[in-house]
Amino acid sequence: MRTSSRCTKCGHAELFHIPETGHEGLFEAFVCQGCGYTETYVRLDARAALGRLDGVRKVGVPDAGPYR
Question: In Å, what is the CA distance from 30 to each residue of 14, 48, 49, 54, 63?
Answer without folding.
Answer: 10, 21, 21, 26, 34
